[in-house]
Design goal:
The chain is mainly alpha-helical and 414 residues long. The chain is 82% helix and 0% strand. The N terminus is likely disordered.
Length: 414
């Protein structure tokens, strides 16, 4: 085993500027995670019908998965920090696969909910390890590219994985949708096992207190909270998008429409980094949030006519995906001393927003039709816009105050 590791190290030293092919295996694992995260929205009406629950209750499958991911990520990262990274990563992927097998075989809805909790926890374990492993497999000048390759697995899942899982669930039953995710995870697991990952020592232990330290700084909390509310607004609608499209367009199979949304999300991911580099973070995010409010108000009407629904879904996916990277850039600028921790917390805000959106959307469906969710989600994004603008003003006041203090120090007489 030692010789094999030495040989791999020697190969990497001979090709220091190349992209290690094992990074693509990590991407395959992220593709399985992304498919699992988004496929429930596509087959939600089928799950509700076959398990005998309301669509609002079925939407809580998204809630518990996202809660487990959002709350579990920092705790699990601290818990497994003493384990070798390669073993922890492969083990998390294996458990994720088994949890999806459990989802496919769950005989009752409560057991299905439990399996989604476990799936969220194992996904929250795998993803950060995949990012860290990708950077360790790449030379310093290629680390950004390596991270992009891993992230693209999630994006491709919205274009291919989720629509494919929705098509499978619509035609062959929702259980096979989870079976498909388990199969994808199993393929990635076997590929990583055979391809091998470099043996890595346990990562430096970061206590849970240190991981949550940014949450004690008001300016960082103020910068994180808007992300929670705009994701809440988006996923209040997206979780129940299959019900909305089937209601408005009278279609059974909406997998093609979800693919259009996914194409928009992929385009937005590709454009987001360049936009942030060229225009900064604040102005693009203000504009994106304003446009998201308008598209979500119009969505119930736009999706009632197929020729209008296609560009509306494309634009919606584009705008929703444009928010993530500029927000990361902004947080890194505000807290460069907390790089890893602040990005992990932003990821948690993303999933907690999904959880809250699916939960509130499910509660709303008890009183209103699915066509009313658009303006409710828009109201949450409007709140996010107000909070974001407030955060920008606070940041500017703090910068101005700091500048004045420095100026006073300079002009003080000796």
């Amino acid at each position: 085993m030692t010789q094999t590791i030495d040989q791999r190290s020697s190969i990497e030293q001979k090709h220091p500027t190349g992209i290690n092919p094992r990074i693509f295996l990590l991407t395959l694992g992220m593709f399985a995670l992304g498919t699992d995260a988004f496929v429930v929205a596509g087959v939600l009406p089928t799950i509700a019908r076959e398990t005998g629950v309301t669509e609002g209750l079925a939407g809580q499958l998204v809630t518990v998965f996202s809660l487990a991911y959002g709350f579990g990520a920092p705790f699990l990262a601290a818990l497994i920090s003493r384990l070798p990274r390669n073993r922890a990563l492969i083990g998390a992927l294996a458990l994720f696969c088994l949890a999806n097998v459990g989802s496919a075989l769950a005989p009752t809805f409560p057991l299905l909910l439990l399996s989604r909790v476990l799936t969220g926890l194992f996904a929250a374990t795998y993803a950060p390890l995949a990012y860290a492993t990708a950077t360790s497999l790449a030379p310093r000048e290629k680390r950004g590219q390596a991270l992009s390759l891993v992230v693209i697995g999630l994006t491709v899942a919205t274009v291919i994985g989720s629509p494919l899982g929705t098509w499978v669930g619509t035609h062959f039953g929702w259980r096979l949708s989870f079976g498909l995710v388990a199969l994808l995870a199993a393929v990635a697991f076997v590929a990583l096992l055979l391809g091998g990952l470099p043996k890595a020592e346990p990562s430096p232990t970061i206590s849970l207190q240190a991981r949550l330290a940014p949450m004690t700084q008001p300016r960082l909390v103020q910068a994180l909270i808007p992300s929670f509310f705009w994701n809440l607004g988006i996923y209040m609608v997206y979780t129940y998008v299959a019900s909305l499209l089937q209601y408005n367009l009278h279609l059974v199979d909406i997998s093609g429409l979800l693919m259009v949304y996914g194409l928009g999300a992929m385009l937005g991911t590709l454009l987001a980094g360049k936009a942030a580099d060229r225009f900064g973070e604040n102005r693009p995010l203000l504009l994106i949030l304003g446009l998201l409010i308008l598209i979500q108000i119009a969505l119930p009407w736009a999706t009632s006519i197929l020729p209008v629904a296609l560009p509306a879904l494309l634009l919606w996916g584009l705008l929703a995906s444009l928010t993530f990277i500029p927000q990361q850039h902004r947080l890194l600028r505000l807290a460069p001393e907390h790089t890893n921790v602040i990005l992990a917390l932003n990821n948690s805000m993303f999933y907690l927003g999904i959880a809250a959106g699916s939960a509130l959307g499910g509660l709303a469906l008890r009183a209103v039709p699915v066509t009313e969710l658009g303006w409710m989600g828009a109201a949450c994004i409007l709140l996010a816009l107000v909070l974001f603008a407030s955060s920008i003003l606070s940041e500017r006041k703090m910068s101005l105050s700091t500048y004045r203090e420095r100026e006073e120090v300079i002009i003080l007489p000796e």
